[in-house]
Design goal:
Blueprint: H1 3-15, H2 20-27, H3 31-40, H4 42-59, H5 64-84, H6 92-109, H7 125-140, H8 146-185
Helix pairs in contact: 1-4, 2-3, 5-6, 7-8
Length: about 190
């Protein structure tokens, strides 16, 4: 078996969740090679895992687009049934209840068309505040669900907390250096 082909099979098997023992047996390589290749091909393995998960989501209608289509289709059927309903045969409160639930479910799926403010790794407090302002504006425009808004606000609060901690530690270290320097001169 060619080495490149063996590495490709290793990546595939790791992405599928196989253990080093099973991979070593199947590909006739050592466990230490598996460990080395795991480090070397970490990004490729993660990308393949992500792709496989995406395929599963699509297969089982787990994508947001598929859920919206399914909810919208069911809502249309409910509306058609309401339009055609003989109110003496079908309890309208039941159909109205379903309609309201599906409308709420569709609202929860809506994420709007704008992209969230992109924080980079070198973000400072101003960037975090811009991201927070952007989040508030997307909430006001109804572009994100309550759950998404809650999650993003928690993440932003944690980022701000971490940023503040780093800032305080840097200032404390600078002060300690100043005080340490003065003690040497005294």
């Amino acid at each position: 078996m060619e080495l490149n082909e063996t590495k490709a099979q290793f990546i595939q098997l790791r992405a599928e969740g196989y253990s080093y023992d099973k991979i070593a047996d199947k590909l006739s390589i050592s466990k230490s090679t598996c460990t080395a290749w795991e480090r070397q091909f970490k990004e490729e393995i993660e990308a393949m895992k992500h792709e496989q998960l995406k395929e599963l989501y699509e297969m089982y209608f787990m994508t947001k687009e598929a859920r919206i289509k399914k909810l919208g289709g069911t809502l249309s059927q409910i509306e058609d049934a309401l339009d055609d309903a003989d109110l003496t045969e079908i309890p309208p409160e039941k159909l109205l209840d379903y309609k309201l639930k599906y409308i709420d479910a569709l609202k929860e799926e809506y994420t709007g068309s704008t992209v969230a403010y992109d924080l980079n790794q070198d973000a400072d407090s101003r960037d975090i505040m811009k991201a927070t302002g952007d989040l508030i504006n997307r909430i006001r425009r109804g572009e994100i669900s309550k759950e998404q808004a809650r999650t993003e606000s928690i993440v932003l609060a944690n980022i701000l907390r971490a940023y503040n901690t780093v800032e305080v530690e840097e200032k404390l270290e600078a002060l300690e250096n100043i005080v340490g320097g003065r003690k040497q001169w005294a």
